[in-house]
Amino acid sequence: MAMNKYLILFVLIFCYSCTSNPFWEDRPSKKINIQGYINTQSNVFDVPAFVFVEDLNISSYTDTSGFFSIDFPSLEMEDGAFSGAVKVYYYIHNYKLAHSTLYITNGRLTSEQIDFDENGVLTNTISLKELASFDLSVDNVWDRTNGDTLKLSLTITSKNHPFSYFSYVDIQSNPRQNIPSGILLKSKMNQAVYYDKNNTDFLQKTDILLNETKVLDFKVAPDGFFPFIIDDYILLDQQLVKSGEHEILPYIHIIQDDIPDELFESIGIQNAATIGESFLKMPIEIMKETLLIQ
């Protein structure tokens, strides 16, 4: 009887040791973190670069020093831990897109990396090349009481490479001409977003050569701004933009064919080639202008 007690006790101790002894356990998955620095040729406005990990849909922004650090969530999938080569993209709207490659095996960083070290640190600083500079010129006070038209201009200068961009135009018949349009306003009081709805007739593609400059002159009538979401039960005069301070930004989308759609979606933009309030989320190196509407 005593022998049976000792046998039972031995079995219990053995089973417990199998579940708690570290020699019997699989090594816990190592937490993945990638980090590094990004700089730009201009570096005038300290615009944060957007960092996006393709296939895993993980993203972040750089801080004011150009540093980013991203912790990966668990890479356990239904069919096992993730393995593969993924691209890490670095993006500012008016800069040439850049990327690095990150190698992952069974949910962990592969020791043999090219662009990162085995700890996930970029081996070299990423330097983004400027495609275009934007210079926005506008009178910062708009008095609508006298029926004045809002006028502003956007100067676009290509820098390191020719490129193409989308912008909106207002088609006028007499005389026949296309007038630049597509102005976004964001109220600083209630965050409401407006655009010159009546003037965005056509999305136009424009090619710009190396070191070429184009000037887009915009004009918006006093009653030309509308919200993106209009409630039919609200009176028309309540749908018009209110007086007060607004952030102002012309819509222009530089075309880069190698940008994955998921990158824009991660920023919060469903379709970057269509004007929308989400375009205000785009990281763009441009001097922010505030318009006081009276």
Biggest beta sheet summary: 6 strands, mixed
Task: Let me know the average pLDDT.
Answer: 86
Which radius of gyration do the C-alpha atoms yield?
27 Å
Q: What fold name goes in the CATH topology slot of the largest domain?
A: Immunoglobulin-like
- The percent range for strand residues is 35-45%
Strand order of the largest sheet: 12-23-21-16-17-20
How far the N terminus sits from the C terminus, by CA atoms, comes to: 98 Å
Poorly predicted regions are 5-29
Give the ordered list of helices and strands: HEEEEEEEEEEEEEEEEEEEEHEEHE
Which structural class fits the helix and strand makeup? Answer: mainly beta
Report the total helices.
3
Summarize the structure in short.
This protein has 294 residues and is mainly beta.
Verbal overview:
By secondary structure, this protein is mostly beta strands. It has 2 domains: 33-128, Immunoglobulins (Immunoglobulin-like), CATH 2.60.40.10; 132-293, Immunoglobulin-like. Helices cover 10% and strands 41% of the residues. It is built from 3 helices and 23 strands. Strands 12-23-21-16-17-20 form a 6-stranded mixed β-sheet, with no helix packed on it. Strands 3-2-7-8-9 form a 5-stranded antiparallel β-sheet, with helices on one face. Strand 14 and strand 15 form a beta hairpin. The radius of gyration is 27 Å and the shape is elongated.
